[in-house]
Structures are given as C-alpha cells and as structure tokens.
Amino acid sequence: xxxxxxxxxxxxxxxxxxxxxxxxxxxxxxxxxxxxxxxxxxxxxxxxxxxxxxxxxxxxxxxxxxxxxxxxxxxxxxxxxxxxxxxxxxxxxxxxxxxxxxxxxxxxxxxxxxxxxxxxxxxxxxxxxxxxxxxxxxxxxxxxxxxxxxxxxxxxxxxxxxxxxxxxxxxxxxxxxxxxxxx
Length: 183
Description:
elongated; alpha+beta; 33% helix; five-stranded antiparallel sheet
C-alpha cells in the first residue's frame, strides 16, 4: 500500500512521496485552456461594444428623425444630446414649444448610451467636408433643431460619430433636406 501511495499523485501532494510538481504536458494543457477562454472573453467584449455603439447610433438617428417630423408638424421641437455629469452616460432630451406658447417645455431625458462610448460631432466646412471634431462632454451638448417650413437642419452638424473600442458608426444628416442615415 505504501508503494501505491508513493507512485500516486495524491501521495506526492500530501507529503508521503516526492514532490516533483506538475508535468510539462499538464502546464501546456492548462495554458491552452486559459488561452481559449480568454479568446472567447475578448471576442464577447468586442461584440458587446459593437452592440452598444449600434444601439446608441440608432437611438440618435431615430431621435433626430422624430424631432424633424415633429417640428414640421404642429410643434417646434429641439433635440439635446448630452453626457450626464452624475453617471457619464449619454442622454437625449426633447424640448417642445407647442402652438401659441412662448417657452419650451423639457420632456424627460432618456438614456441612449453607456459611459464607455465616445460621441463626437463634426461641422460642415461649406465645401461638403467635415472639420472641427468636437467630443460630447459634460457641459458641451449637441443641440439639433430644424426649420419648420422646409425641414432643413438649422445647426451646422453633418455627422455625429459614436465609438466604442474599435467599433465606429456615423449618423449623417443631409443639411439641405434634414434626412438622417447611419454608416
């Protein structure tokens, strides 16, 4: 029985046999398993960042389109996209001025993006190019409004960029028509 314990790994671990440690094959197998698990983790993280970027860009596109349609209807509406100072997440808020009213009413803000995302906007340089990248930060919101008669955008933004990790999506606004699309 003593001979069995000496040749058994359990015997080596509890001090009754020689303590030679792990074999090279055991170490290679453990490292390979860890590499596979980390690969899945990193791929999953990239996928999650991509979902967050696409979701935020879609929310911005939908909010801009709804603001344009509402403005061309019976109410004047402005859209404000901002980074909140308390949780650093990205929010949208509509400001509505109903017919006959002189002041805007702020509607409740809605969270559209996580704090890990970077949102920036570009200004049209007049020749169709984009210049002046400005990052959306606390105290530096994006204000979007449209002309009630034509639906044209009154602001000079052509592109709002949403980034998370290596994933990037652009929300483009056609200045002449106010149409919105993502790239």
